[in-house]
Design goal:
Strand order of the largest sheet: 4-3-2-6-5-1-13-14
Helix content: 25-40%
CATH topology: Glutamine Phosphoribosylpyrophosphate, subunit 1, domain 1
Largest sheet: 8 strands, mixed
Oligomer: single chain
Number of helices: 12
Number of domains: 1
Bound molecules: aspartic acid
Order of helices and strands: HEHHEEHEHHHHEEEEHHHHEEEEEEE
Strand content: 15-25%
Length: 364
């Protein structure tokens, strides 16, 4: 006979299933489809959550087509790629980061080594490079032909009030070639699409980054954020990505958060830490991230004209597997249409893009 105690135990088990709970899950920025798939493969094999996150973002770090991260990332104003990255490991509550690191393809791996092999948390510039070399990382030129093209176009696009630029063929030059003809001459193998992209990058200096947050079925969490930062930045400029508490924060008891987009705004609100603290005090990931975006809007007194000049995205993953992506703006305007802001999720099957929650609606 099915007695009352068995019935109660049965209903308790059903209720537990209905609740969200720790499970393998990976959350990332919109450029993280392949990253999430690889990180999930690692989680399924029982690998550590940080190992999984780093293995995921390494795909973007080595991808010459991702112009916002690692190899092929858009350089600083001198044409040098400078990388920032951070890692946090929930189970051991440790963190590591590197900033303004040159010539090393995998800054997320170097950040992990700072965490594991030093008594420090953050190494920058020359010191970070020497440290990476001490651990056997090869120095490589991270500038691809494509990113060099975009940089040269940007250099040539800066004009004084008389339309002059020292990086053009000069007053006494034999020809006054049209910019498009000059480009074709300099980069004969570049496609029309690549040339158009370079113009766009010069006129609208992009940000771009990958953040990856992981949770496993044991409830362990980790995260990493890695970037080449803002294109054409002043050498030495450090964004939010390597700042623990801004570009990334993980608290094993609560959850994790990360960010992509204009780092300067994020640093001012310590975004990832703010979101994790919001979750600690009971907000759902969505509310926690939107609250953080409100703080950013508040820094401009809500002035939408100034806010319209940038965007920023947050990703939040709570320890029980509930997650959200949220952006300041509903999306970007592309050819007169608003393209909805997205983020990536993998909860065991195929990686998929989901719509970000947003604070402000972009009109086309
Ligand atoms: N947050 C990065 C930075 O400011 C760039 C980005 O994510 O777009 O360096």
């Amino acid at each position: 006979m099915f007695n009352r105690r068995q019935w109660m135990l049965g209903s308790a088990a059903l209720a537990a299933q209905a609740q969200p709970g720790p499970r393998n899950i990976v959350v990332s920025s919109s450029n993280g489809l392949r990253c999430c798939t690889r990180a999930m493969e690692f989680l399924k094999k029982g690998e550590d959550t940080l190992t999984a996150a780093i293995a995921g973002v390494n795909i973007n770090e080595e991808d010459p087509e991702d112009s916002s991260v690692g190899y092929g990332g858009l350089p600083n104003e001198e044409g040098v790629v400078e990388l920032d990255a951070s890692v946090m490991h929930g189970p051991t509550r440790r963190a590591g980061s590197v900033a303004s690191l040159r010539n090393i393809k995998y800054p997320s791996k170097v950040a992990r080594l700072v965490m594991e092999e030093t008594d420090h948390i953050m190494l920058v510039g020359e010191g970070a490079l020497k440290f990476a070399k001490a651990y056997g990382f090869p120095e490589e030129n991270l500038l691809t032909e494509k990113s060099r093209l975009a940089w040269l176009v940007w250099k040539r696009s800066n004009r004084d009030s008389g339309g002059h630029n020292n990086w053009t063929d000069g007053l006494d030059g034999p020809s006054k070639a049209k910019p498009a003809a000059w480009l074709r001459d300099q980069f004969p193998h570049a496609s029309e699409e690549t040339l158009a992209w370079a113009w766009d990058m010069a006129r609208n200096p992009p940000t771009g980054t990958i953040n990856c947050l992981t949770l496993n079925a044991k409830g362990e969490m980790s995260g990493t954020t890695t970037t080449s930062g803002l294109a054409w930045k002043i050498p030495g400029r450090v964004g939010d990505s390597p700042i623990v508490g801004a570009g990334l924060y993980v608290d094993q008891d609560v959850g994790a958060a990360g960010s992509t987009g204009r780092g300067e705004e994020n640093i001012r609100v310590a975004g990832a830490h703010t979101i994790v603290e919001n979750m600690r005090h009971g907000m759902a990931p969505k509310e926690a991230a939107l609250d953080c975006l409100k703080r950013i809007a508040r820094n401009y007194g809500g002035d939408q004209e100034r806010l319209a000049k940038f965007d920023i995205h947050f990703y939040a993953l709570r320890k029980d597997g509930v997650y959200a992506g949220a952006s300041l703006w509903s999306g970007r305007v592309r050819q007169g249409q608003v393209t909805r802001a997205k983020f990536t999720v993998n909860d065991g099957g195929k990686s998929r893009l989901e719509d970000c929650e947003f604070l402000l609606e972009r009109k086309s």
